[in-house]
Amino acid sequence: MHLALAGLLTVLAAVPATAETGRYQFERTEAGIVRLDTETGAVALCSGDPLQCRESGNGTPVADSDIERLEQRLAALERRIAALEKDGSGDALPSEEEFDRTLSLMERFMRRFFGVIQEFGDTPETPPPPAPPPGRT
Predict the structure, then answer these.
(1) Which helix (H) or strand (E) holds 24?
(2) Where are the chain's structural domains?
């Protein structure tokens, strides 16, 4: 019995801090090992010698009304995505007029920007050194 337990603990010690083994995902914590059931979302804290797992949470199942509300919301979002993908307006290139307007705005921006740069270019980059304090030469 002790040999089997020692073997199990050796295997657990060799497991990285987070390990995925199919349906369950394990994470080491100060209180023990947390087990996440990736299919149901149930979480259990495993600890002790021998290792025992206890489900956490209040154990209250999700209400059918909550599931129905979320399913309706999901269906509405899926319909909205399908309508947006069917419209295809996001894939269209801008018209020639839109392109020219955008290019004109960018040109105005660049001209103003470089004008500001030229204004600053006429001033010295570093101020003159300060005058020595009075009485020192």
Answers:
(1) strand 24-29
(2) 2-55, 91-120
